[in-house]
Amino acid sequence: MAIRCTPGRYQEIAEHWQNIFDWKKEEDKLNRLPNFRSLVPIDGFGDIDIHFVHQTSPNKNAIPLLFCHGWPGSFIEVTKLLPFLARSDSAPAFHIVAPSLPNFGFSQRVSKPGFALAHYAEVCHKLMLSLGYSTYVTQGGDWGFYITRAIGLLYPRHCLASHINMIRASAPKITRNPALALQHALSPYSAAEKKGLERSEWFEKEGFGYNLLQRTKPQTLSYAFADSPVALLAWIYEKLHDWTDSYPWTDDEILTWVSIYWFSTAGPVAHIRIYYEAMHNATPVIPTRDTLIGWIPSVKLGMAFFPKELTVVPRTWGRTLGPVVYKSENEQGGHFAAWERPDVIAADLLKMFQKGGPCYNIVKGKSGY
C-alpha cells in the first residue's frame, strides 16, 4: 500500500519524532559503519573536512567504487548496498567509498560562495587519490549523477567507468549524433518509454517547485529549516513520498534520513546551497550543468532505468551521454534506487565488472580476478 502524504500524516511523523523516535539508537547503528574523516585540499577553498564510509574488501584485486549521493539523500543510501558487495569469495569485489558531500551529513559546511559542481567533483576525486585509488569507478544518482559525470569529464584518466540510476539526457541531434539521431527518428517509443515521458512531464509541471526555490532563494528557505525541524521534515518527506515507487517507508526510516540533515555537521540549512551554486557559478570546463548531459567520451557507462525516476528518458537519449556498455530495465523502482532497489544496483555493478562483462579488468592491476 502506498504511504500517505497528508497533513495528518505529517503530524503523525512529527509526533513520532518528538515522543518515540530514538535518534541515539539510529546513531549507534551509523557509528558501527566503517566511518572515517579526512581533510581534502580544494583549490580556492583550503582544506575541507570530509566524512566518508570506507568498506574495504580482503580481495587484493577489488575495484575501488565511489558512491555519490544526492539530495535529499545522504551517505546512508550506500548502507543497503554494502552487504550485496561485501563478499570476498565472489568476483568482482569492491572497495566502497561513500562520502558525505560537503554541506551534507557529517562533512564540513562550505561558507565561501562559489563552491560549484567542479569543486564537489574535486573533493571526491582527491579523496579517492588520498586513499590510494589512482583509478576507480563510480555510481550515482540525483546530484551524484552530475558529480560523477563531472568527475568523468575532469579526470578521465582516473575515472574509468560509471553506473548511473538517474539519466538526464536530451534527444540525439543530427549535428552531434547523426547515426543515433537517425535511429531515434525511425524507431517509435516503446510503451515503457511513453510512460517515462509522462512521468517526466509530471515532474516538470508538478514536482519541480522545490528546485526553483532552492536554486534561486536558498536563504529564504534556510530560515524555515533553521527555525523548525517540522519544516525540514515536511520538505524532505514530501520528496520521499513522491519520488519513490510506493516504497513502504517506516517512520524510523524517514526520521533517520531527516535527522541526518537536522543534526548535520554543516547545520540543517547548508544542503540546499548546491542548487544555487551549481546554477550561478560557472567554471571553464563546466560552464553550465547542461554540459554534463553531453557526450563524455572516456568513461564507459552503465545505466539503470526505473519507472518512477524523476525523469525517465527514451533509451536512445541515454546513449548521447557517452559509450554505453550496459543497461538494465526495471519494472519497479524510483529515485532513491540504492535504497529502494539495492538488489538491482548491486546486480548491475556485478554484471558490468565480472569476467565476461563489458568493464571486466578495466581498473588495471586492481580487478584481475
TrEMBL record:
This is Alpha/beta-hydrolase. The active site is at residues 142, 275, 335. PANTHER family: EPOXIDE HYDROLASE, EPOXIDE HYDROLASE 1-RELATED. It comes from Lepidopterella palustris CBS 459.81. Keywords: Aromatic hydrocarbons catabolism, Hydrolase. GO terms for biological process: epoxide metabolic process. Pfam families: EHN. The keyword RNA-binding does not apply. The keyword rRNA-binding does not apply.
